[in-house]
Design a protein that fits this description.
The protein is of the alpha/beta class. The chain is built from 19 helices and 23 strands. It is elongated and about 115 Å long.
Length: about 650
């Protein structure tokens, strides 16, 4: 089985979604483990801490990777080809299949669209079919991306090929955005008389839409006075009015070609250094080939034939329904992790979180010490990583495994993940702010990448927060119950001198978190006095208060000073017994009976107090409130047994 890494700047960009769709489609029946990683851009400034995603590039240098697929054109928005070469040179000598641009390494290959042929078809069509004599170009040259430069060069070449003169005054720059094109066009053409062109070719659909808006504001009718074309065939091109003539790059198809080349080269097949991919030219309403009032889902191809295309409205409905489902899932996930303060508590919920996030499995790997990195750093990640926890829902396996160490430079997946086999995985760094804690790998069920980006971001944040909280808990393992009881009156019960409900729940949850993290045993008790109402009715409430005080004294004698005891309400008490085994419950009952009799005599009570208890092991849950509820149920059963014996 081969392992192939796919690097994309973002899982939410439509280009990346289509590109990944083609790759995953090709490998769906292949014996390949596909690792998909959202890297963002090195020293990215668009998100406060999104630059941390780039740390996945260091992880993907692992010896476990056999080949790489990279949409290199997307990375040239912020990086020059030479910079990209330096960023990815450590991937060699393993093959690197790029789309749009060759990064110039010995083992790199490129799949490029034939931009010249596509734009030449547009220019030729504008001239011969619509009699255009002055064809302008909306470029994105200021981005310095390889695709922008290539499309501009193709435009100039196409003009020459079709006997049209190049005029630099007819070249605009929209920075690949609709508002950029809109603003640049209006800044250079103040009124309709300054529009010196009858055709406008745009380097992408966004800029075409912005240009149409600007032309309309100037009083220029599109397509009657000026015809316009875009590039990319994004959903925007279909839903714009008029519908855009455009060039469909078939990003999905490019992804398939890149995947096939990667598979071929790994199987010993010789592949060319450059593979040309022919896109599809589509003439719609913005060049007047389809009438404005024609609402049919069609376009005209380069041969003049009408072609039925996919109905984008059904895709829009699917997106809307997916957004609703995603929001519901996110709400559920947030509810699930709300009480997950520690790593072990994350683990208790991991298999449910994995299912809710539409994953098959997740492996959480953390560094022994967090790595600090600000936006100017290129951090060196640790040589070793620790598998903390994992859940494999398909194989019904899970584990909390601190101490399982492996070297990410040798293998990205721990040995425990070997059963997972081929399929699609996402690798994502775990970080919070300027601290990197590790990474996780997750096997995904479908190709809804934007949803996964959101789900995994939430999980990564929860894990990083739990990591920090867990470390703080372990560092402060010895908590002083006495200090809280003596120094914080707001958390102390006046009648018994024990913790009140607020103090017990606060200190108890902290203690519970620590106990679960250091793997110590423990038991949560719920205790209630038998017959308090009868005592109050017979001897009065003052004697009832004395009985409650005596109950507190009994619990102090039975349990140790290190245990946490609190009066929850009335005659109800709760105890967290650190390190105790559940098998000790019969002994505890005997001690309680003994001290109830002894304290009753010592306090000269006219009756013998009696306590009922319910007890649950700490492994029953991570929430103190839920454990107390379970103990209370067992307490009720014990009271019922006592009541039945007295009949």
């Amino acid at each position: 089985m081969k392992t192939i890494a796919v690097l994309v700047p973002s899982l939410t960009i439509e280009y990346c979604q289509d590109f990944l769709g083609g790759i995953t489609s090709y490998f769906s029946d292949k014996d390949v483990k596909l690792i998909i990683s959202q890297t963002q851009l090195l020293h990215n400034e668009t998100g406060l801490y999104d630059y941390q995603y780039w740390n996945s590039v260091n992880i993907l240098k692992s010896q476990e990777i056999d080949a790489y697929i990279i949409p290199a054109g997307l990375y040239t928005v912020k990086r020059t080809p030479e910079e990209l070469r330096n960023l990815f040179k450590d991937f060699t000598p393993r093959p690197i299949i790029c789309s749009a641009m060759d990064i110039g390494l010995e083992n790199s290959y490129v799949v490029k669209i034939d931009s010249y042929e596509s734009i030449n078809q547009i220019v030729k069509h504008f001239k011969e079919t619509h009699n255009c004599k002055h064809i302008a170009f909306m470029s994105a040259n200021s981005t310095n991306s390889a695709e922008a430069i290539e499309r501009f060069a193709a435009y100039k070449k196409a003009l020459k090929q079709n006997g049209l003169e190049y005029d630099e005054k007819l070249v605009f720059d929209g920075f690949f955005t609709d508002f950029g094109a809109h603003n640049d066009l209006l800044s250079k053409c103040k009124n309709k008389s300054e529009i010196q062109f009858d055709g406008l070719v745009c380097a992408n659909d966004n800029m075409a839409v912005g240009s149409i808006k600007a032309l309309t504001e100037l009083g220029i009718d599109v397509p009657q006075k000026v015809i316009v074309s875009g590039f990319d065939n994004s959903p925007l091109s279909f839903f714009s009015r008029p519908k855009l003539s455009t060039i469909d790059q078939d990003i999905f198809g490019q992804g398939e070609v890149c995947a096939k080349l990667a598979n071929d080269v790994l199987n010993g097949v010789e592949i060319p250094k450059e593979t040309l991919f022919t896109p599809i030219t589509m003439f719609r309403q913005s060049c007047n080939c389809i009438p404005i009032n024609n609402m049919e889902v069609t376009y005209v191809d380069t041969k003049g034939s009408f072609v039925i295309e996919n109905d984008h409205t059904s895709s829009l409905f699917s997106i809307m329904m997916n957004n609703i489902t995603e929001k519901m899932n996110i709400t559920t996930i947030l509810d699930m992790i709300r009480s997950c303060n520690t790593l072990r508590q994350i683990y208790y919920n991991l298999k449910y979180l994995v299912g809710q996030c539409e994953l098959n499995s997740m492996f959480v790997n953390l560094y022994k010490t967090p790595v600090y990195a600000d936006n100017n750093d290129t951090p060196v990640l640790p040589d070793e990583v620790e598998l903390i926890m994992y859940a494999e829902n398909l194989n019904y396996k899970e584990g909390f495994t601190p101490g399982t160490i492996f070297k990410p430079s040798e293998r990205i997946f721990p040995q425990e993940a070997s059963i997972e086999g081929p399929g699609n995985y996402i690798l994502q760094p775990i970080y919070a702010g300027e601290s990197i804690f590790g990474y996780f790998t997750a096997k995904i069920k479908n190709t809804n990448f934007p949803s996964y980006q959101m789900y995994l971001k939430i999980l990564g944040t929860a894990i990083s927060q739990s990591y920090e909280y867990t470390n703080k808990l372990i560092q402060t393992e010895k908590l002083s119950t006495e200090v809280i009881q003596l120094n914080d009156l707001a958390k102390t019960d006046e009648l018994t001198g024990l913790l009140n409900r607020r103090g017990f729940m606060e200190l108890g949850q902290r203690a519970l978190d620590i106990l679960q993290e250091i793997s110590n045993a423990g038991v949560v008790f719920f205790a209630d006095m038998d017959g308090l109402k009868k005592i109050n009715d017979t001897y009065g409430h003052k004697m009832g208060d004395k009985a409650i005080q005596s109950q507190g004294q009994v619990l102090k004698r039975v349990f140790r000073s290190s245990d946490i005891i609190g009066r929850i309400s009335g005659d109800e008490f709760a105890i967290i017994a650190k390190g105790m085994l559940i098998t000790m419950i019969p002994v505890i009952r005997k001690k309680i009976n003994y001290w109830c009799k002894k304290i009753s005599i010592e306090n000269e009570l006219p009756f013998t107090i009696s306590l009922s208890i319910g007890a649950v092991d700490l492994e029953g849950g991570s929430s103190l409130q839920s454990l107390l509820s379970e103990a209370d149920k067992l307490l009720y059963k014990e009271k019922s047994r006592k009541h039945n014996k007295q009949k």
